[in-house]
Design goal:
- The chain is mainly alpha-helical and 62 residues long.
- The protein has one domain.
- It contains two helices and no strands.
- Belongs to the UPF0337 (CsbD) family.
- It holds the Pfam family CsbD.
Length: 62
Amino acid sequence: MGRRSKTGQDDRNEGAMDKAKGRMKEAAGALSGNKDKKAEGRADQRKGTMKEKKGHLKDLLK
């Protein structure tokens, strides 16, 4: 069977999860003094924001 294509809501949900994961990584990096982990967390948050925007765009183009 073929894979179901992701809906806008799926992308928004994934984006929210990436943002939450990123906030946790950033906080862990800040607490431990690990600059790389902190930067990775910020990158995950940006990735999540982009996925959320992609989801909104998919819904607009339906």
